[in-house]
């Protein structure tokens, strides 16, 4: 089932479950840079599989609605499923948005006074 096919409460539940593994992947500067430079899907899949196998399984299980501990893929089904995710425009946008939001840095000094001052 595509992520966009989930609606209402079911969509909220899926999103809540996805935030953990997605944030772990998207806070990786290497992954963020790959998204920003527009790397190929195969290169992205390789990096994700090499560094985030558990998170990929978790994401696939969540999207398919199967408990992670019961989810199974093999060397033939995994690439197809991963490429489906990477080719899903809405899901790719979600990953990119999360990467941008999670990697944002604060601005200004932590000690700076940001209180408004009264001018007369």
Explain how this protein is built.
There is one protein chain. With 120 residues, this protein is an all-alpha fold. The protein has six helices and no strands. Helix 2 crosses helix 6 (89-103) and helix 3 (41-51) packs across helix 5 (77-87). The N and C termini lie far apart (61 Å).
Lay out the secondary structure.
Layout: H1 8-26, H2 29-37, H3 41-51, H4 53-64, H5 77-87, H6 89-103
Q: What is the oligomer described by this structure?
A: single chain
Helix share of residues? 55-70%
Unreliable spans: 102-112
Query: Radius of gyration from the CA trace?
Result: 18 Å
Biggest pleated-sheet summary:
none
Overall pLDDT, averaged? 79
Number of helices: 6
Distance between the termini: 61 Å
**In percent, how much strand structure appears in the residues?**
under 5%
- Coarse morphology: globular
Alpha-beta classification: mainly alpha
Order of helices and strands: HHHHHH
Q: What is the number of strand segments?
A: 0
């Amino acid at each position: 089932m595509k992520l966009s096919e989930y609606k209402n409460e079911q969509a909220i539940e899926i999103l809540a479950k996805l935030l953990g593994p997605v944030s772990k992947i998207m806070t990786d500067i290497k992954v963020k840079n790959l998204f920003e430079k527009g790397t190929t899907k195969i290169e992205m899949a390789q990096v994700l599989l090499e560094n985030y196998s558990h998170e990929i399984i978790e994401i696939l299980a969540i999207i398919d609605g199967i408990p992670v501990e019961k989810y199974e893929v093999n060397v033939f089904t995994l690439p197809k499923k991963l490429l489906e995710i990477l080719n899903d425009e809405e899901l790719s946008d979600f990953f990119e948005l999360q990467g941008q939001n999670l990697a944002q840095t604060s601005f200004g000094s932590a000690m700076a006074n940001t209180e408004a001052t009264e001018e007369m």
